[in-house]
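Hi support team,

I've been running sequence recovery on a batch of backbones for a student project. Most finish fine, but this one hangs at about 90% for roughly twenty minutes before it completes. I'm not sure whether the input is malformed or the queue is just slow. I've pasted the structure tokens below so you can try to reproduce it. Let me know if you need the job ID as well.

Thanks,
M.K.
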């Protein structure tokens, strides 16, 4: 069963939350940045009840026009009580409120989410019972698909980035995810660094100087990034590079364009 949904997968638990705006120190902007960042991480990505798990398995992927990616995935939820019915909700990039997409989703064999079609409360066709759902979406570069599954037993979230912006070097990785549709606000994530260590990075053309972010006890860094805009500027490019002797992954992306 196909379902067109923009909704979310990438889960890095226990990450330190930092909001480092390089564009302005205004309290209102900082509060908005913090809110969007925490909504993405705490409100979706790390929303997993104790004893539950959620995973994704690609079904199909194809390149579309203008560097888009068409994807289909199966989603698996384990640990929920038997007979649990979920409502699927999605949260478009830049929003902080979920939108209902589908109700009556059942958990099938090995945790696969499906439309069982066996009772009035379950989605699906009784003539085609236990039909796995192919969650389908078209995404642009760096766009996270943010899925929420809500039930009386609990709620669980998942973030999927089918068309990633990422780089790696000597075992370290760096990636950028859109937190606003135009990529003006990005969530930068790095992995593979020494735990609880100051990690230096450079963002150009924001500034020629080096900035510092502290890794957590898993060797992960996370921070938000806004471009320094010139008067009247509506688009541009950003490059982020880790400046450490042991590894120096870098990424680049365009902002202000959809």
């Amino acid at each position: 069963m196909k379902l067109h949904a923009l909704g979310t997968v990438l889960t890095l638990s226990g990450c330190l939350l930092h909001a480092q705006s390089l564009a302005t120190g205004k309290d209102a902007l900082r509060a908005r940045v913090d809110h969007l960042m925490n909504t993405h991480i705490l409100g979706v990505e790390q929303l997993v009840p104790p004893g539950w798990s959620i995973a994704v398995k690609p079904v199909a992927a194809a390149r579309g026009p203008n560097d888009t990616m068409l994807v289909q995935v199966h989603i698996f939820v384990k640990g929920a009580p038997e007979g649990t019915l979920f409502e699927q909700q999605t949260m478009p990039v830049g929003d902080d409120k979920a939108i209902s997409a589908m109700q009556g989703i059942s958990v099938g064999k090995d945790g696969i989410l499906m439309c069982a079609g066996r009772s009035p409360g379950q989605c699906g066709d009784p003539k085609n019972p236990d039909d796995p759902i192919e969650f389908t979406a078209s995404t642009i570069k760096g766009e996270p698909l943010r899925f929420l599954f809500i039930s009386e037993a609990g709620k669980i979230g998942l973030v999927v980035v089918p068309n990633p912006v990422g780089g790696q070097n000597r075992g370290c990785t760096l990636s950028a995810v859109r937190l606003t549709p135009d990529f003006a606000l990005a969530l930068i994530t790095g992995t593979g660094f020494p735990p609880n260590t100051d990690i230096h990075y450079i963002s150009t053309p924001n500034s020629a100087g080096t900035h510092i972010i502290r890794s957590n006890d898993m060797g992960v860094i996370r921070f938000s990034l806004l471009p320094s805009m010139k008067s009247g500027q509506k688009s541009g490019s950003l490059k982020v590079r880790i400046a450490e002797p042991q590894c120096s992954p870098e990424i680049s992306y365009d902002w202000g364009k959809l």
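--
Follow-up from support: It reproduced on our side and the slowdown came from queue contention, not your input. The longest helix spans residues 27-45. No action needed from you.
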